[in-house]
Amino acid sequence: MINTRIPRRRNCCPKDTTVEPIKLRASVDLKRYSSFHLAKRQSLVMGERNLVDVDKLVLKGLQFHGFHGVKQEEKKLGQKFLVDVDAWLDLSTAGLTDSLTDTISYTDIYRIAKEIVEGPSQNLLESVAHLIANTTLLKFPQISAIRVQVGKPHVAVHGPVDYLGVEILSYVSGYKNRFQNFIKNLREMGDEVIVVTTHEGVPQEFYGAKLIGSWSAGETEKPLLIHVGRLGVEKSLDFLKRVVDRLPGVRIAFVGDGPYRNELETMFSGMPAVFTGMLLGEELSQAYASGDIFVMPSESETLGLVVLEAMASGVPVVAARAGGIPDIIPEDQEGKTSLLYTPGDLDDCVHKLEHLLSSKEFRESMGKAAREEMEKYDWRAATQKIRNEQYNAAIWFWRNKRAQLLRPIQWFVRRLFRWSPGITYS
């Protein structure tokens, strides 16, 4: 194996009269393996080379002046940003020919980061890092994974903090295929695969949260719809605007924060809507309990922990029948603990909400049933399921396996002592 580190000289990039000189620190980490060693390694890492087994381009210490942040001073005056980029790809053929497609141009990655940081303002560092990562992956199909770190040095806050940053690691598509290869290899390695599916535990603080009368805006008699979660465009939260338009007698509260918040606030301007921002602990528990109905329009939830938390707080749920939500609310529980509607079907969603809004007693009975159902989803129940099912199954399997291994030995011992003089075997 050859492990070299080649520094990138500043004078290797020809000066362009139309573009300012590019100053950057960069290096290449090269790891080379023989074909035999690579084949052996591939059999151990899900059919693909692990990130540590591929080459990496490194750009560190890139500095740009950007206008990103949530404060007006940041957007108006701007500040210095530091960007580090690590890109994983196969450089085994780089340099064997004169083709530049065998590698990646450092200057191109530099320009991508520069244009994004110095471009239109973003509220969050995460947005800047994701833009750099996604743009680079789209431009260079040779890259299998990329890590982007964006930071603000010497942040103007009180306390010991002098650097604020975020690190984003993105992969190209194909994760599903890699996971299937992992399962295939896992089956070949073991004698038996024991799989116990469980769920995320719901903290006990959501059991018994007290009802509060906040966010009334002078309209306490109107029922309150509540949504908890990240405010992102992928959550289909604009669907709730059409829902509220059809239900003029309700209020709605959004608990959480995210890049889509400003657009949502503009969208719901002049309507009985409240945006609380991020809440934690007891405040979050009270926020759940203050709602009359929890609404979840997202069609891409893998589990939907917020749905579990709402039901644990005794709040009936109206959610899209998509993603992992039907696993939480199976068909035999629909109409008892919660209601599901066809994804994107406005009429179906409004009909389910009207059914709950028409009767306070119905809402309370469904909320009570939801809370009782969620008792099986606390952390104690989740750990007991793993202990009772997985550990017991593993113990039973080993005992059975041991009995199979000992059976020929027992047979041989019986045969041996059966003909031994003066020894009886029973």
TrEMBL record:
Q: Which GO terms describe its cellular component?
A: chloroplast envelope; membrane
Enumerate the GO terms in the molecular function aspect: dihydroneopterin aldolase activity; UDP-sulfoquinovose:DAG sulfoquinovosyltransferase activity
Annotated function? Catalyzes the conversion of 7,8-dihydroneopterin to 6-hydroxymethyl-7,8-dihydropterin.
* EC number of this enzyme: 4.1.2.25
Which residues are in the Dihydroneopterin aldolase/epimerase domain? Answer: 57-170
Which Pfam families does this UniProt record tie to the protein?
FolB, Glyco_trans_1_4
- One biological-process term from Gene Ontology? tetrahydrofolate biosynthetic process
Tagged with keyword Zinc: no
Quaternary structure, per UniProt, is: Homooctamer. Forms a hollow cylinder assembled from two ring-shaped tetramers.
Q: Which reaction does it catalyse?
A: 7,8-dihydroneopterin = 6-hydroxymethyl-7,8-dihydropterin + glycolaldehyde
| Keywords from the UniProt entry | Folate biosynthesis, Lyase
CDD domains assigned to the protein according to its UniProt record, in alphabetical order: DHNA_DHNTPE (cd00534)
Class in the EC hierarchy, top level: lyase
| Lyase recorded as keyword | yes
UniProt pathway:
Cofactor biosynthesis; tetrahydrofolate biosynthesis; 2-amino-4-hydroxy-6-hydroxymethyl-7,8-dihydropteridine diphosphate from 7,8-dihydroneopterin triphosphate: step 3/4
Name assigned to this protein: 7,8-dihydroneopterin aldolase
